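The material for today's practical consists of a large collection of protein records. A record pairs a protein's sequence with a compact description of its fold. Instead of coordinates, the fold is spelled out as a row of discrete tokens. We will come back to this pairing of sequence and fold again and again. Here is such a record, shown just as it appears in the course material.
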Amino acid sequence: MYSGNQVSTIVPARNEGLNIECVVRGLRRLRNETGDSLIDEIIVCDNGSTDDTAAIANRCGAKVIYQRKPGYGAACLSAVSAASVCDIYLFVDGDDSIDYDDVFNLLAPFNNGADLVIGTRKPHLREQGAMSIPQLFGNAIAVRMIKLLWNEDVTDLGPFRAIRAPAYHRLSMQDHAFGWTVEMQVKAIQLGLTVNEVAVSCKRRRGVSKIGGSITGVLGAARGILGTIFALWLHEKFARFVTKNETSG
């Protein structure tokens, strides 16, 4: 629990047998100001793993659920639906790429009214090789598009993030693939939610990245992210057009 708020951690994972133990144990060791567990529950969604990801996560004390439909967003949606009643959802990838002490920094803005907090992977806190060149390039294009379309200074689409439960449910998340992260950020902007960015460390993962580890992954992520941005912008424009015509009519 953090400052009276129950925290459920969502961990989408596919073939993370090398890393998932470090993730679960890293989260479980965190303690709040009273010495109790900072994280109230850890939900690992096994997204069609062919290794022992689920067994390891379960052995380490996580609640494990399964979503056979492939997709980052599909795994996150399933894990959230399996969460107990909580106040804050914390999203952590299953690749052991974060510094777990950064969770405190990520949660701190909620004491000052934040609705959504994004962990931004600043260059000086990013281990060499933690993000591939295509990932860096695609991320830069995406945040630039958001700046141009909504005039918001977004610097990263980092998956390490936290959001108040009521704010999350207002977003009505839909994307089942790589557009998940940007859908959350753009919809938060569209709804006028309070979005904060916090600098966090980013380590080089063990094993092959689902995105940066292959051309197919890079292209799929780029298509999903940029397509989601454009689709949300079009939807907003159409909604404004309809509202304007109804008002003038």
